[in-house]
Amino acid sequence: MKYKKFENTIIARIDKGEDIVEQVKNIALKENIKFASIQALGAINDFTVGVFKTKGKKYYANEFKGDYEIVSLTGTINTMNGEYYSHMHLSAGNDQGEVFGGHLNKAIVSATCEMVIQVINGQVDRYFDEEIGLNLLKL
To answer: Which of 10, 24, 69, 126 is the most buried (most CB within 10 A)?
Structure first.
């Protein structure tokens, strides 16, 4: 992974074989990012996304392997209890034009991933909401 910083914007290239989730964390920790928005595109061949079922308050994971194009990757970097936290969603399409997606758990790059991280001045922490069963923004 390589990246360049331009004031409050980071442009990153995540390389073949690297996990996007891990590399976002590496950048955030190195740059001490407390709050940012993320967007990306690229190609992946192994990814896991989840769907949150509200009645059971639980995520269910779906794994995909093969050739996929990232149609959309969007998310945030922020903190929970003052520590690094990220929340990303991914949609990826196969060679038949079918798209699968959800809450991003893992995505291994097959060719490249181009990412823009827009750092926001400030900090927004998260807290666990018992009623909903998710880590919500503390606003």
So the answer is: 24
Alpha helices in the chain (DSSP H): 20-31
What contacts 24+ positions apart, CB below 8 Å, involve 131-136? 132/54, 132/57, 133/52, 133/54, 133/57, 133/58, 134/52, 134/57, 135/80, 135/85, 135/87
Q: Which residue has the tokens 């959800």?
A: 102
Write out pLDDT tens, residues 114-126: 999 999 999 999 9
Are the beta carbons of 135 and 70 closer than 8 angstroms? Answer: no
